[in-house]
Specification:
The protein has about 300 residues and is of the alpha+beta class. It is about 40% helix and about 25% strand.
Length: about 300
């Protein structure tokens, strides 16, 4: 028996999810069903079309030539259907469901919580999965079921839309106890002899600093005593006098004002880090994502402006 139109759309959606998730089991997890159900839907679609769409072995899965054509065409058809539904519902469609966002630990625990609260207050039908992650190597947002991410650092994945939000200044800091009464270093070269903290996401064995007035660059080889992928952990280690570290100015400001940290070589700074809102390219973006993008872009000056 041939599948009806509505059922065929569901089968096409399942097929797209299998391809994008990379396996039947991953697709089942994302769709909230079982692997046998996903397998059965795939078989129904193949029977309906009279085509073999996937070649599967125990360890691999790849599209056939017919499967590749079906995948590209199905994306177009379903994106068109989604646009059609969106137009019928109107531009003021109220988002519902779950928004999944990856955010850096520091921004995600402090400055982005305000906009997140505003988003949830404005859209009563929404809930949010707020995933703290500093690793920029998360590439396959679709397969991971992620709607978007706030990324610190350069965006190198050509498959992602990147909306610039800010440039975050970074400074060199240490606890006064680390200097043991010695004068505060003014030149970048003086920093090489001090014990260092490494923020592995951005620097490990070498740092480059730029003079704010002359524009001169200086590279410094370092041998870290403490290495971490957490900006908060680096700040805590600096407060304990473990070593010198480079971090975002906004994270250090309160402790600089209290005298618990001091800025070393104050005319030398590391290059500011770009902050971007990133998400996969698509023909259609759901209301939950569009509303979040609009809110973050509107509030970016307030979120990232006080550096």
């Amino acid at each position: 028996m041939q599948a009806g139109t509505g059922e065929r759309i569901e089968l096409m959606l399942t097929f797209l999810k299998i391809v994008e998730a990379g396996s039947l089991s991953a697709a089942a997890l994302q769709l909230g069903t079982t692997q046998p159900t996903i397998s059965r839907r795939l078989q129904m679609l193949e029977r309906s079309l009279g085509l073999r769409l996937l070649q599967r072995t125990t360890h691999t899965m790849r599209l056939t030539q017919d499967g590749e054509r079906c995948y590209e065409r199905a994306k177009e058809l379903l994106a068109g259907w989604a646009r059609f539904e969106s137009e019928l519902k109107g531009a003021r469609e109220e988002p519902e469901g779950v928004l999944r966002v990856i955010v850096p630990h520091a921004f995600g625990q402090e400055r982005l919580i305000g906009p997140l609260a505003s988003y949830l207050q404005q859209h009563a039908g929404m809930s949010v999965e707020w995933l703290l992650h500093d690793d920029r190597a998360i590439q396959d947002y679709i397969a991971a079921g992620i709607d978007c991410a706030i990324q610190v650092g350069e965006v190198t994945d050509p498959g992602l839309v990147a909306l610039p939000l800010a440039q975050v200044p970074r400074i060199v800091v240490a606890a006064p106890s680390l200097l043991d009464g010695q004068p505060i270093p003014q030149d970048a070269a003086e920093l090489a002899a001090l014990p260092w903290l490494a923020l592995r996401t951005f620097y490990r064995n070498e740092v480059q600093l730029t003079h704010s007035e002359t524009g001169r660059h200086k590279r410094i080889q370092i041998r870290p005593r403490f290495s971490t992928d957490s900006l908060y952990a680096l700040r805590s280690a600096a407060l304990q006098g473990v070593g010198v570290g480079i971090g975002s100015r906004w994270v250090m400001t309160e402790y600089l004002e209290q005298g618990q940290l001091i800025q070393l070589a104050p005319k030398w700074q590391a290059a500011p880090l770009p902050v971007s809102l990133v998400y996969p390219y698509a023909r259609f973006y759901p209301a939950r994502l569009r509303r979040f993008i609009d809110l973050v872009r509107a509030e970016a000056p307030a979120i990232f402006g006080e550096q």
